[in-house]
Amino acid sequence: MSAIRTAMVLAAGLGKRMRPLTDRIPKPMVAVNGRPLIDHVLDRLEAAGVEKAVVNVHWHADVLERHLAGRRNPPRIVLSDERGELLETGGGIRKALPELGPGPFYVMNADTIWIEGIRPNLAALAEDFDPAAMDFRLLVASTAASIGYEGNGDFLMDGESRLTPRPERVMAPFVYAGAAVVSPAIFEDSPEGSFSLSRLFVRAAEAGRLYGERMEGVWMHVGTPEAIAEAEEAIERSKD
């Protein structure tokens, strides 16, 4: 499909596992390799040709708002204010839909970070997205090879790149890397208020409309203060 020009950046979480760093700043402002996480995300979107990014804010919203106001490079930033009520990932996107437009858009977690491979991952997500067949195309990384990730993975993938959520008591080979292309149609009958995007992942999977794109490069899960040094070491190694 044609290039995607809008994105939703999910930046409203409380960052509890990143404390004490997030006692006074939101998690997207935590620095990795000398720059806030959210700048790494916005740089990826800029490189992918995104012109407009909606960023939702809640925890220490003023800190994030001031930082974004000083950013001069694309994409253009539009804030979605959740100071009054934290809407979770799904509810936050639903609230922002009027700003995101009628076509498919990127969704990115504000704390997702990776070392790029040969083919830019966001471009691959957009190029392979077919709105007639897909509600979501998720960027997924290797559960075993990701930096700082110690969970059991999120998805199984079949030969046509369809994803199935991980069954209980199973180690899944793929973990969601915090970036996706989304069709706004999936939100047409979504619930009001706060809800998790994972609810819509399950619905799409049941309909055979949840697909994945294997990440080229290395995904880094920066979930705790201790994980920052591990991510920075991986970035430095990638420069050799």
UniProtKB/TrEMBL annotation:
Gene3D superfamilies associated with the record: Spore Coat Polysaccharide Biosynthesis Protein SpsA, Chain A
Keyword Nucleotidyltransferase tagged: yes
InterPro entries hit by this protein: GlmU-like (IPR050065), MobA-like_NTP_Trfase (IPR025877), Nucleotide-diphossugar_trans (IPR029044)
Alphabetical keyword list: Magnesium, Nucleotidyltransferase, Transferase
This protein's record includes keyword Zinc: no
Pfam families found in the cross-reference section: NTP_transf_3
Domain MobA-like NTP transferase, first and last residues per copy: 7-116
Protein's name according to its UniProt entry: Nucleotidyltransferase family protein
